[in-house]
Amino acid sequence: MVKKVLIVSNSSDLHADLVVPILIGKGCTPFRLDLDHFPRDYELCQRFRQGEWDGELRHLPTDQRLRMSEVGAVWARKPAEYVFRSADLSAQEFAYARQETEQALFGLLMALDCYWIGHPAVVRAAMWKGEQLKRAMALGFRVPATIVSNAPARVKAFRQGVSGDIIFKSMSTPALAADDVAEEQRLVSGVGTTIVSEEMMESIDAVGELACQFQEYIPKQYELRVTIIGEQLFAAKIHSQDDVRTMVDVRDMTAEIRYEATTLPADIAQRCRAFVASYGLQFGALDLIVTPQGEYVFLENNPAGQFLYIEQLVPEFKLLETLADTLLREAACSRS
């Protein structure tokens, strides 16, 4: 049986938009499940009978169908809010519909015995920043001195024990959940990694409301984004210190700093691979710092991170094609 590729994402995902034609060009038409159109534009069926199981998805606008027995590889990219055929559901009806949809869909997908990039259970287990730091240390990485606490006195003591500056860095999202509320309800659009000033320390009692993460500020020679797809590793050197806007937080994409391909020392590459593999992940996007003294410091891993911008800035990295080839190869090797 020829195995197929299932892509689970949303209709605004440019990564999926670009991988689909690559797969088609290689002879595989994937089935794309856009969660922001589900279940409105899809039909789902899962059956259990006399010891046998089967399931099917159908995209109603195109009549494209996918039997679960045909799936050899799944790329789970990005979540989205479900949408229903009725636009006038009450609050309780909508809440119940979301819960039942979650059960129906993931009861189907999680039953698949195939290759996954981004298995939801694995990604969730790998997303916790505090656990990542502990795991990275166990693998031999240096990590920044860090405290996560809602005890102001402990944060003050941490600050006094660090010889240089400390930073505040959100553990969940630098957008501070602005994307999760209506525009008129947003207080701020977000806060990036920030050096904590003495003035900010005067208001440190505010952390009594919410546990926050503080770290020692690590001086940088440059930064690294290490993308792992299957067996392939791509290391991008980021010259973040070339522009004042990216010296503390490299995520300011308005700064036209240099990104270039680089080769990691063998031991660092091995640690990166081991870190990703330790979760059972097939994808990882790790952020590292290289200090002026040449020491490598682990910051975090993004188990479902963005990577298109890396290919755009380092064109010799064929990340989209590597991902497509990995899905196709593993689908062909999947269990029949």
Describe, in plain words, how this protein is organized in 3D.
The chain has 336 residues and is an alpha+beta fold. The protein folds into 3 domains: 4-118 and 327-333, Rossmann fold (3-Layer(aba) Sandwich); 145-216, Dna Ligase, domain 1; 219-303, 2-Layer Sandwich (D-amino Acid Aminotransferase, Chain A, domain 1), CATH 3.30.470.20. It has helices at residues 14-25, 91-109, 120-125, 129-138, 152-161, 198-201, 266-278, 308-313, 319-333, and strands at 4-9, 31-34, 42-49, 52-59, 64-67, 71-76, 115-117, 146-149, 166-168, 194-195, 212-216, 222-229, 232-238, 259-262, 283-290, 296-302. The strands form 4 sheets. Strands 14-13-12-15-16 form a 5-stranded antiparallel β-sheet. The chain has a 4-stranded parallel β-sheet with strand order 2-1-6-7, covered by helices on one side. The longest helix is centred in the first third of the chain and has 19 residues, at 91-109. It is globular, with a radius of gyration of 22 Å.
Compose a concise summary of this entry.
The protein has helices at residues 14-25, 91-109, 120-125, 129-138, 152-161, 198-201, 266-278, 308-313, 319-333; strands at 4-9, 31-34, 42-49, 52-59, 64-67, 71-76, 115-117, 146-149, 166-168, 194-195, 212-216, 222-229, 232-238, 259-262, 283-290, 296-302.
User: What is the general shape?
Assistant: globular
Mind describing the biggest β-sheet? 5 strands, antiparallel
| pLDDT < 50 stretches | none
Q: Give me the CATH architecture of the largest domain, please.
A: 3-Layer(aba) Sandwich
